[in-house]
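step 4 of 6: structure.
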Amino acid sequence: MPGARPPGPATPPSPEQIAFVENAMTKFGKQTYNYAYRLSGNEADARDLTQEAFIRVFRAWQSFRPGTSFLSWIYRIVTNLYRDELRRRKGVFTQPLPEDNQPHEQAPRHDPISAMHERQLSAGMERALRALTDEQRSVILLADVEEYSYQQIADVLGCSIGTVRSRLHRARAQLRKLLLREHAAQGPQV
Amino acid sequence: MKGNCARDSLDKGPNADMTCHDCRPLLMDYAHHELDDAQDALVHEHLQTCTECRAALQAEVDLTDSIRYAYSEELEMPQSIVAGVRQAVRGYSPSFSERVRTALRPAFLAPAAAIALILAGALRYGPMLLTPPSSQLSSSYFVRQHVAQTLGSPSSDRSWAAYVLTSENAKSSQPSGQ
Ligand SMILES: [Zn+2]
């Protein structure tokens, strides 16, 4: 039905709808924020991604299917928002933008990152994880940090289980390669 | 890279078809518990006798552990996010179709979803409970190796999904400043 959105004063959302998003923020806000933070690597983007994701949850609350994983749903929203944002902010964003599925060979960047992030990640692993493509990092986050099954990851990323498997293989191989390079660059100590 | 570890040259046992060459590409999936039961059992058997594949598996596990360690610190969600969402909620005007769907949303949706879940669970796991394990596989292995991991899996938010959609909860819920 075209032009369905009614003009005039705003109709308040239903109590059910407000309760849905309030409960979602209370129960899953922290996990969502941490996922966004690990994906983007900085707090400002994590804040924007998380806020926008919950606003989308609020608007689309009726498309959530009871009995399915809420976290998978909101991770998918965050991942898609982040992907869109990377495309939109090409060249401005703090993350590199390599081509899909290409092993990422570039040298570690020296972007300013938050003190918290510096503390959080050991230096070599931090650089290696940041040098992955966002796609590789998201599959590693979901598989190894969130401990999602391949099926759940496929749901979040909107791809097949086979793609999850091959993407994870490539991501981990690439991470190993980058860690070896880090190790070599740092000399003989550890 | 052709596998040339000890297992390849050992006497062929009941799982002789699993060589190092076959095993290595499966180790990542094995470590993530993503092999089907038959493959999982074959890899498990191979690992009993092959130190090199065990070392390769350990490398997979170590990589996962170091990734987890790197991301082990949990940040609190800034309250500005909650404030921002609430502000967007206040200024929100639902579309006509959204209001229609709200009006049509039946009160028994959550119980119905719970029943559907139970039925789905029965269909999914019922046959597994009724069917004895294949004689090819060691059932005690699967009990030991998998049940504990399955029970320990994180992020179980399904019960919340049913809970949050009940009208009772909607009425009693207060925006909290947590
Ligand atoms: Zn072997």
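step 5 of 6: annotate
 - Confidence is low (pLDDT under 50) at residues 1-15, 106-113, 125-178 of chain B.
 - Residues 5-70 of chain B form one domain.
step 6 of 6: archive
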